[in-house]
């Protein structure tokens, strides 16, 4: 019925034919509509083609065609109009507002695929004449197919999600059920903590015991010295009194009564080397410190910054900063020190010594300052690579070591960071640890004596930790440097 109504609509007024007439070309129009159309054509100015034309095919007629009512078409239109009026009347009683076209008030009969909406017969002629239009049943069939496929996919995805949720529930239970593991870890940490506290007490007790024994030995020697001094005093007093006697006979009679001096009791040397006493313990503590402060934090929180590896707080550095000066008495003969001893340069020729102290045979120099308990920080500027900076006990050998041009970090009493062209080497006890990091010409050294922590930092736009040593320091530490030919090291001052 929809397609039939489309054929019964006048293309001029877009309504059902009213007194339909047929032109010689075969097209149909309302009699009044085509008459009005031709009347307008008669009003066209002279000189233009004023022939009568068909609005559909533009075919022209020299004379106005006779307009006879198409009786058959008129009857069909009347039947369609009656059917439409009955449908409208029924619609007013039975069709819900949602089933009527909002624009024309006609029943919705087709679906426009282009505009994706239901349309009425007037929409079909006026708005959607060139659009793709289908019956409701056809469009529903396509939509149902799509929905069925979507439903199947949704069902499959729902099943997968439900399965994943079940697995997550199992994982949740498994994760929550780790109390035994947690208790075991807590027990281990508690045991380690207690063991460390016990060994701390034992180590301190041993040091105190060695200290008491040494003090008792010193006190014993002191008492021996005091007793001997008393004896010597009495002897000297009797001898002086006898020497002052003027009578020869009395002198000779009293001389045998003067007690002879006995040989003094030999003092046993006091041996108290606390560093030797705790050396094995220090080595173990160094390994434990490295495990606890470096390896363990990296396992517990890989992305969290290591407190031992953080850059020193710049707000605290001024108070902890130390201004260093080189010690001329230790400088190698090729190292030229500036006035003020704040810059060292490896010269091509020897530099006359100014001091009487033993100078290094390697290209090394100590600083005058030494540091003990507390936190200390200093900065240096190097001209290029092939430099070593570190700290050492005072007893660092001055002699040249075999197979090495330096001796920083070759024993247990010195620690050094060697700056190479492509990497860094951290030296201690003759072992070198390679560190792959960019070359910095400004370096900072942080020494926390009490914590046994020595750290080296690269100073640039951001402060970068290069390496940290963990140890137990037992003596004052001196900053020490080694310079290759042509290199310059400057001690930064504040």
UniProtKB/TrEMBL annotation:
SMART domains in the record: BBOX (SM00336), RING (SM00184), SPRY (SM00449)
InterPro entries assigned to the protein according to its UniProt record, in alphabetical order: B30.2/SPRY, B30.2/SPRY_sf, Butyrophylin_SPRY, ConA-like_dom_sf, E3_ubiq-ligase_TRIM/RNF, PRY, SPRY_dom, TRIM8/14/16/25/29/45/65_CC
Keywords: Coiled coil, Immunity, Innate immunity, Metal-binding, Zinc, Zinc-finger
Record-annotated RING-type domain positions: 10-58
Domain B30.2/SPRY: 304-494
One annotated Gene Ontology cellular component of this protein: cytoplasm
Pfam families in UniProt: PRY (PF13765), SPRY (PF00622), TRIM_CC (PF25600), zf-RING_UBOX (PF13445)
GO BP annotations, alphabetical order: innate immune response
GO MF, any single term: zinc ion binding
Coiled coil: 147-174
Domain of life: Eukaryota
Domain B box-type: 96-143
C2H2-type domain span: 52-75
PROSITE patterns in the cross-refs: B302_SPRY, ZF_BBOX, ZF_RING_1, ZF_RING_2, ZINC_FINGER_C2H2_2
Protein name, as recorded: TRI65 protein
């Amino acid at each position: 019925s929809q397609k039939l109504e489309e054929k019964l609509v006048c293309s001029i007024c877009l309504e059902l034919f009213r007194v339909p007439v047929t032109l010689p070309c075969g097209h149909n129009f309302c009699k009044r509509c085509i008459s009005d159309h031709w009347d307008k054509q008669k009003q066209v100015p002279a000189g233009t083609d004023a022939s009568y034309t068909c609005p559909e095919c533009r075919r022209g007629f020299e004379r106005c065609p006779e307009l006879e009512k198409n009786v058959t078409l008129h009857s069909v239109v009347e039947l369609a109009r009656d059917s439409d009026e009955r449908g409208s009347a029924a619609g007013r009683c039975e069709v819900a507002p949602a089933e009527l076209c909002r624009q024309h008030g006609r029943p919705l009969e087709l679906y426009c695929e282009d505009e994706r909406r239901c349309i009425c017969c007037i929409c079909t002629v006026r708005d959607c004449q060139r659009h793709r239009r289908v019956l409701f049943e056809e469009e529903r069939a396509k939509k149902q197919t799509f929905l069925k496929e979507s439903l199947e996919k949704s069902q499959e995805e729902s099943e997968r999600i439900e399965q994943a949720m079940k697995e997550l529930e199992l994982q949740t239970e498994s994760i929550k059920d780790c109390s035994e593991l947690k208790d075991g870890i807590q027990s281990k940490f508690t045991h380690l903590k207690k063991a460390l506290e016990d060994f701390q007490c034992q180590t301190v007790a041993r040091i105190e015991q060695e200290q008491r024994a040494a003090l008792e030995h010193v006190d014993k020697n002191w008492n021996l010295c005091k007793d001997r001094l008393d004896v010597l005093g009495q002897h000297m007093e009797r001898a002086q009194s006898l020497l002052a006697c003027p009578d020869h006979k009395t002198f000779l009679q009293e001389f045998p009564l003067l007690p002879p001096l006995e040989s003094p009791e030999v003092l046993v040397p006091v041996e108290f080397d606390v560093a030797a006493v705790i050396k094995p313990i220090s080595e173990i503590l160094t390994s434990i410190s490295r495990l606890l402060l470096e390896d363990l934090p990296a396992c517990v929180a890989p992305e969290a910054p290591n407190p031992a590896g953080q850059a020193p707080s710049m707000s605290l550095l001024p108070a902890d900063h130390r201004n260093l000066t080189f010690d001329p008495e230790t400088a190698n003969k090729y190292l030229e020190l500036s006035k003020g001893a704040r810059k060292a340069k490896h010269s091509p020729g020897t530099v006359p010594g100014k001091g009487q102290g033993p100078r290094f045979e390697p290209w090394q120099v100590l600083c005058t300052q030494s540091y003990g308990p507390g936190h200390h920080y200093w900065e240096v500027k190097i001209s290029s690579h092939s430099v070593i900076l570190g700290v050492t006990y005072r007893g660092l050998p001055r002699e040249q070591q075999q197979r090495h041009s330096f001796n920083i970090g070759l024993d247990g009493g010195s620690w050094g960071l060697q700056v190479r062209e492509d990497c860094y080497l951290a030296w201690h006890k003759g072992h070198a640890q390679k560190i792959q990091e960019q070359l910095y010409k400004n370096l900072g050294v942080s020494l926390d004596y009490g914590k046994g922590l020595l750290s080296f930092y690269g100073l640039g736009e951001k402060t970068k930790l290069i390496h940290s040593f963990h140890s137990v320091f037992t003596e004052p530490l001196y900053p020490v440097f080694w310079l290759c030919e042509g290199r310059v090291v400057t001690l930064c001052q504040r």
